[in-house]
Amino acid sequence: MRPFVHLLKPHRAWMLVGLLPAVAAAGAVVGLLAVSGWFIAAAAFAGLTPVTAHAFNMLHPSVAVRFFAILRTLARYAERIVNHNTTFRILTTLRTWVYARIAPLAPSGLAGFRQGDLLNRIVADVDALDNLFIRVMTPSVVAGAVMIGVPLLLAAYAPAAAVALAIFLMAAGLAVPAGARHWGAATGGELTQQSSRLRIHLVEALQGMADLLAFNAGRHQTERIWSAHQALTAGQERMSRINGASAAGTTLLTGGALWCVLYIGADLVATGALDGAHLALMTFATLAAFEAVTPLAAAYQYLGQTRQAARRLNEIVSRPIPVRFPSAPVKPVNTGIAFESVSFRYHPEAPPVLEAFNLQVAPSEHVAIMGATGSGKSTLINLLCRFWDPTAGRVFIGNQDLRLWPEAQLRQNLAVVSQQSHLFNTSIRENLLWAKPDAEEADLWEALDKARLSAFVANLPDGLDTWTGELGQLISGGEARRLAVAQAVLRDAPIWLLDEPTEGLDTENEHALIRTIRTLTRGRTLLIVTHRPVGLAEMDRVVVLENGKVAEAGTYEALMNAKGRLAAMLDAIW
């Protein structure tokens, strides 16, 4: 919990401001019930005879009742406003901090986490941490103030009753919450895991629904969801039983405290040391004191769930950053690319993807990387984007070691169209603006025109404001590909890295897109990774990758005439 408690420090002022009305509201409740009990009892005793009724002062206690009632209302309102505002501020800080710690890990540092689990950690686990302030810290401070203040009030009338009340309050405010925390710790931690498991299955079911339906596997996935739901429900039932036992214990202690106060007070009334009205005051003050203590059991019962959520977040944020970027800018000589004896594997025990790989790409040269699936083509793009660092060897851009490039400068020099370009669930306009936030509408249309997509967008009813859907599901694969190219156009970078840009396109659109890319990248360095033969003849050079090494390289014509690896690959495709 320590990293997250540390994040509360910037909000100390708001937390203190929220604690004041909370304590004031609890004090107002005690004052309202105590004064009301005394007032009703005193008025009843005064009304026994005309003389005492005439002499009884109705003004002061009625003013006190109104004062405590108004104070309680205002304090409760202020507490809700301030504490919920503070909670939202704390959650904003937590989410921002967690995202800022996670972002440098992507993608290599997050490769071992499932998407549903990451979503659950970022959303549900962060939400669980708000219990720390609003359900644990604030009620604890309020209960502590009441556990001290009310016995002191009773001590003015009956010291023995004050001692008895203090004992019962300590049992209800310390022992019961400690027991609830002990019995709820394991179950609360399980609830966090079970909630994550259920969300993982739900997210996977939604993302893979088409495949589940195609393979008639929907029933199996439904059973997994139902099993996770039952486990979660069972944990919630256990927590409900613990909550019920805690509530029963607090109720019994409340009754015991009332019995002791009444017993001691009644004896004092019988001996004339205390009047009946003050006994009523003591009784109602005792009830009010337990009202402040009662929420502690539930708060500490779910503390185990909060701690488990913190552990799960720490598993992510404490991971070492796999790639660190310097801050000093570099001065690249040109836009050339070089791989020098590069070896790479995605996991220490995994086989090498690249092994002693060497490649030189001249400035403004257009190079196609061909190879079978798993030959290491996409890995080259990942290394150039510095999502990973090589296991051995070095990568250069502009005669500068890639490890010397600051992240912002590197990204500005690269236009990347990945194998699965992500489209956000928003409009075409907003998706384009991710590439260039300050782009004017004319710039957007120019980029769409260069990507051969302007006619399609112009014919849409909402034009640029047409929704693309999650992952671009409301537009076709070819349109999504061209939209990714339009983003690259807006990026206006000197180096283009394209990973299977024509995947999923028909032959006509494939040829058209390759021609468009060739036109757009004149004078720019282009590295295109593909296993398709389209456009190879128009490239300056073709490099065939096999088992993480260069099998052959040269112009398309020379390689085809040599009837080597490239010719064999294309014969197999055709």
3D structure, described in words:
With 574 residues, the chain is of the alpha/beta class. Helices cover 62% and strands 10% of the residues. The protein has helices at residues 2-6, 12-46, 50-55, 59-102, 115-128, 131-155, 159-207, 209-214, 218-270, 276-293, 295-301, 303-317, 377-384, 407-412, 428-433, 441-450, 454-458, 477-491, 507-520, 556-562, 565-573, and strands spanning 337-344, 354-361, 366-371, 392-397, 400-401, 414-417, 495-499, 525-530, 541-546, 549-554. A hairpin with a 2-residue loop joins strand 9 (541-546) and strand 10. Helix 4 runs antiparallel to helix 5. The protein is elongated.
In summary, what is this structure?
By secondary structure, the chain is α/β, with parallel strands linked by helices.
What's the average pLDDT?
Answer: 88
Structural class determined from secondary elements: alpha/beta
In spatial order, strands of the major sheet run: 6-7-8-3-9-10
- The fraction of residues assigned to DSSP E strands is 5-15%
The biggest beta sheet reads:
6 strands, mixed
Report low-confidence residues grouped into runs of 5 or more.
none
Counted by DSSP, the helix tally is: 21
| Rg, Å, rounded | 35 Å
Shape: elongated
What is the strand tally? 10
Distance between the termini: 61 Å
Helical coverage, percent range: 55-70%
